[in-house]
């Protein structure tokens, strides 16, 4: 069973672990000690949180639970113009189980109801992009590092 709970300050240790899981593959080849990796992850996590809070001060921060176990985090900002998927990250042991798909489809249903697109940014190198494309997200802008992607019901209607 999947459930969202509001992220609280006492969840920070878990949320750092989730963030570390998103960087583990990248850091594996750096040759750093475990202590250096931990310091780097902690610093980068703090920078990311600060950036998200500055850009999306009204965002909702959630811990994703699967069968009462902490599985990941979801950050969503709802603006007048869009539903912004700021971040969805899962611990490696919870990936490829349909959790991301479940919450993305939930945001798509919300998008249909409020007639606002779901928008997100994803690193070019992030495999999650394939999931987003499979669910009908379209690339609206790209740089060397990032894709801006968007989903709106009208995109799906145009495909049919």
UniProtKB/TrEMBL annotation:
The answer to whether UniProt assigns keyword Chaperone to this entry is: no
Which keywords describe this protein according to UniProt? Ribonucleoprotein, Ribosomal protein
Q: What is the lineage of its organism?
A: Bacteria, Bacillati, Bacillota, Clostridia, Eubacteriales
Name a GO molecular-function annotation: acyltransferase activity, transferring groups other than amino-acyl groups
The keyword Ribosomal protein appears for this protein: yes
Q: Where is the N-acetyltransferase domain?
A: 2-160
Q: Which Gene3D superfamilies match?
A: 3.40.630.30
Which InterPro entries does the UniProt record give? Answer: Acyl_CoA_acyltransferase, GNAT_dom
One GO CC term, this protein: ribosome
**What is the protein's species of origin?**
Desulfosporosinus lacus DSM 15449
Name the chain's protein.
Answer: Ribosomal protein S18 acetylase RimI
Q: Which domain of life does the UniProt lineage start with?
A: Bacteria
């Amino acid at each position: 069973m999947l459930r969202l709970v509001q992220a609280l300050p006492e969840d920070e240790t878990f949320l750092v672990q989730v963030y570390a899981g998103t960087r583990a593959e990248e850091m594996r080849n750096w040759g750093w000690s475990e202590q250096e990796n931990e310091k780097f992850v902690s610093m980068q996590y703090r920078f990311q949180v600060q950036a998200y809070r500055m850009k999306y001060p009204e965002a909702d921060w959630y811990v994703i639970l699967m069968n009462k176990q902490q599985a990941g985090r979801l950050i969503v900002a709802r603006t007048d113009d869009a539903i912004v998927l700021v971040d969805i990250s899962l611990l490696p042991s919870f990936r490829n189980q349909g959790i991301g798909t479940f919450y993305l489809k939930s945001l798509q249903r919300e998008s249909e109801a409020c007639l606002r697109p779901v928008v997100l940014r994803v690193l070019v190198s992030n495999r999650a992009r394939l999931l987003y494309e499979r669910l009908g997200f379209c690339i609206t802008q790209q740089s060397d590092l990032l894709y801006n992607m968007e989903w709106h019901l009208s995109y799906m209607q145009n495909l049919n």
